[in-house]
């Protein structure tokens, strides 16, 4: 499971990196997206936030939470934001690069917000502030 998770995050990150190759004229209409992620009222640090268009049209956008739970989405290496419309939102704790073989990885995000998340967000034109107050139970 840990290898599968690592492979998925690697593939998604690679796709984000490759998507930065086109010129800015190739970009669809984007809205900037920023917000704060909390778990049981406390900021959730070091979590990857992913917005995937619900209609499966357009690329996925990613952001990483800082120590205050703040994230900002990137569409590509040279564009901030996400395509306009409804998105399925997932969150995961990326595997640390320095995890030793005898160490156990601890996922901080409850399963209900991971790969089969029911979180939905709408990105509008302009600036969007989208906060998430997650619950561990």
Features:
four-stranded antiparallel beta sheet; mainly beta; Immunoglobulin-like; 137 residues
Can you walk through the features of this model?
This is Carboxypeptidase regulatory-like domain-containing protein. It comes from Thalassoglobus neptunius. The chain is mainly beta and 137 residues long. The protein has 1 helix and 12 strands; from the N terminus they run H-E-E-E-E-E-E-E-E-E-E-E-E. It has one helix spanning 2-18, and strands spanning 30-39, 42-43, 48-53, 61-64, 70-72, 74-76, 79-80, 82-83, 85-92, 119-123, 126-129, 132-134. The strands form 3 sheets. Strands 1, 2, 5, 8, 11 and 12 form a 6-stranded mixed beta sheet that branches. It has a 4-stranded antiparallel beta sheet with strand order 4-3-9-10, with no helix packed on it. The chain has a two-stranded antiparallel sheet with strand order 6-7. The relative contact order is 0.25. The model is unreliable at 1-11 and 15-23 (pLDDT under 50).
Low-confidence segments, given as residue ranges, are 1-11, 15-23
Biggest pleated sheet: 6 strands, mixed
Q: Structurally, how many domains make up the residues?
A: 1
The name CATH uses for the topology is Immunoglobulin-like
CATH class categorisation: Mainly Beta
Strand content: 35-45%
Percent helix among the residues?
10-25%
Distance between the termini: 22 Å
Radius of gyration: 15 Å
Note the overall shape: globular
Structure summary, number of beta strands: 12
* CATH superfamily membership: Immunoglobulins
State the helix count.
Answer: 1
